[in-house]
Specification:
Length: 389
């Protein structure tokens, strides 16, 4: 019998019989405000902030809210199976933790805490290149649990090659290549605080422990940290990359490769032609292109272009269980959740991340069932009604 994630609500109610209430809200939209009260404006701004006026982040939310679920009645939903197969891996639910960098800003346990939470709940954890903790330590915290690695594609080929070798050796099974950050966007919340964590040597752990990276330094990192930071800044991103460069990644990674940041159907076709395995329809949570198309508005066209050729995943705006239902109905195979789990981490460490995962999947399970579905794969665009903008 498949796990019923919805049982989490009864667990909460039964604890209430003994006077216990959840440590964090079950309405995950409240977490950002609570985190802002708990942590300083610099760290929270880096996670919560968006490009420009925040119009793209707002559009992401509006695009999901504009689509309304049309429930169906008298369908047998007594037994649900939320499991899906993604990139050749069997997952208990269509959810993974998105790559969020610099998690030490949120909690001292940082990436290992989030990774342990994902492992405990059986969902994949995607580690950012820009983590506060070396990838090997994060992998060790997860045991045999499913883990994927996100690559910020450095100018230095040898550093990129080294990252891929290290990730494979540490048991990361899929590679997620972020394409939408060849440059940092204009982000007023960070600019107003004059705060970029990398310049303080935070979020650079994978680089500062990498032999190919340190080979380019005149002195060890601890002897001249400022020089190490400057070396990092000079290679972190490369706006000169083009589609033929993907061949290098394919030559140096023998597992699935997923391109993150695809919003145009033609880019999905180019990804398929380049031999990629999947795409993430994402606008980086509104952090890169101000005025960008909302991710949920881009999803149907990308999913249609990628049909039978690529695995389509989705992020940018997932905050609730019904958001997951809508993304799957629009063509995604699974979703990635980012900011909500980062807030959960900031508020309550590993337990906070597990709370976010369990809330999302309980609400997803219930919304799926109450809409007349017993498995994610039965959702289609016919299950949604789009309100006029």
């Amino acid at each position: 019998m498949a796990k019923h994630w919805a049982d989490f609500q009864y667990e909460i109610y039964l604890r209430g019989m003994k006077g216990a209430v959840p440590r964090l809200p079950t309405d995950l939209s409240r977490l950002e405000e609570l985190t802002e009260r708990r942590l300083g404006p610099g760290p929270v701004g880096y996670v919560a902030g968006s490009a420009g006026t925040g119009s793209t982040a707002a559009a992401n939310r509006a695009a999901l809210d504009r689509r309304r679920i049309v429930p169906r009645m008298l369908r047998d939903v007594a037994e649900r199976d939320l499991s899906v197969e993604v990139l050749g891996r069997s997952l208990p639910a269509p959810l993974a933790l998105a790559p969020v960098g610099v998690l030490s800003l949120m909690h001292p346990d940082a990436e290992p805490a989030a990774a342990r939470a994902a492992a405990a709940q059986g969902v994949p954890y995607i580690l950012s290149s820009a983590s506060s903790t070396p990838m090997e330590e994060v992998a060790a915290a997860m045991g045999d649990a499913e883990r994927w690695f996100q690559l910020y594609w450095a100018k230095d080929r040898e550093v990129t090659r080294s990252f891929l070798q290290r990730a494979k050796a540490a048991g990361f099974t899929a590679l997620f290549v972020t394409l939408d950050t060849p440059l940092l966007a204009w982000r007023p919340r960070d600019l107003d605080q004059a705060y970029l964590p990398f310049l303080h040597g935070v979020g650079t752990a994978n680089y500062f422990t990498d032999p190919a990276f340190t080979a380019g330094l005149a002195k060890p990192v601890h002897e001249d940290p400022d020089a190490a930071v400057l070396h990092f800044v000079g290679m972190f991103a490369d706006p000169g990359k083009t589609w033929p460069d993907l061949e290098f990644l394919r030559e140096n990674w023998d597992g699935p490769i997923v391109l993150k940041g695809v919003l145009h159907p033609q880019d999905a076709l180019l990804a398929a032609e380049a031999g990629m395995d999947g795409v993430v329809v994402s606008n980086h949570g509104g952090r890169q292109v101000a005025g960008s198309v909302a991710a949920a508005d881009a999803l149907p066209r990308v999913a249609e272009a990628a049909r039978d050729r690529l695995t389509v995943l989705f992020d940018s705006g997932i905050h609730t269980g019904d958001d997951i239902v809508k993304a799957l109905a629009l063509g995604a195979k699974s979703v990635l959740v980012g900011r909500p789990y980062a807030y959960g981490l900031g508020l309550d460490g590993q337990a906070g991340v597990e709370h976010v995962i369990r809330c999302l999947l309980a609400e997803f399970d219930l919304t799926l069932a109450l809409s007349g579905h017993s498995r994610p794969g039965s959702l289609t665009a016919d299950d949604l009604l789009e309100e006029s903008a």
